[in-house]
Amino acid sequence: MEIKPEDVQEVTTVGELHGDSVKMVKTWGGLHVMVGKKDKSSKKPDALAAASHRALACHQLEKMFGKAFEPAMAKSESEQIEAVVEFNVSPELKKDHLEIYSIAKNNEVDFVVARFGVIMAKYECSVDSECLTLNRYGKHPKASDSLKNHSEAISESIRDAMIKYSEQTGISLKK
Questions:
Q1: Degrees (nearest 5) of the Cα angle 136, 141, 142?
Q2: Which residues contact 52 (CB under 8 A, 6 or more apart)?
Q3: Exposure of 160 by Cβ count < 10 A (0-12 exposed, 13-18 middle, 19+ buried)?
């Protein structure tokens, strides 16, 4: 895939890998591509990870490179990368490459269904008075068919993810 200069919205440094900087290229279409050197001996940077959300792209880097990837320190709260937690999914969802994550920052938590780093559906939640509240649900327009076949499994996995998240954080679920 070729990304032309006019496709780029911004380029920021998100960390270091093997002593070299890792840059995030954000396109106008919403793709976040992490670019850096895969190996210490690499002469040119490569595309390391890509996702429709910057936190998912960083999470991919952390999974692939472990401690070798060092995230950059944020200068302000708005620059902070959201905390990502990956949840287990049923074999049915795993077979179709569907993954479930929570993406949390401040008092907002999104539970997302993703395939290959692209968010297919999002459950937007807020945390008020130590209580997790589901505010809104939305899905990618082109995801309807692929998600429809798994609606029950996705609902169960999202519910389980919300329960696990509330247990891990000590936040209760609002019914």
A1: 140
A2: 30, 31, 32, 114, 117, 118, 119
A3: middle
Contacts of residue 115, defined as CB under 8 A and 6 or more positions apart, other chains included, come to: 96, 97, 98, 99, 146
Domain boundaries, the chain: 5-76, 82-173
Query: Which pLDDT tens digit goes with each residue over 89-138?
Result: 888 889 989 999 999 988 889 999 998 888 889 999 988 877 888 889 88
Cβ proximity of 20 and 36 under 8 Å: yes
SS3 30: coil
| Encoded tokens for 19 | 């002593």
CB atoms within 10 A of CB 65: 18
pTM of the model: 0.80
User: Which has the higher per-residue pLDDT, 2 or 6?
Assistant: 6
How far, rounded to the nearest angstrom, does the alpha carbon of residue 77 sit from its chain's CA centroid? 18
pLDDT higher than threshold 90 for residue 34: yes
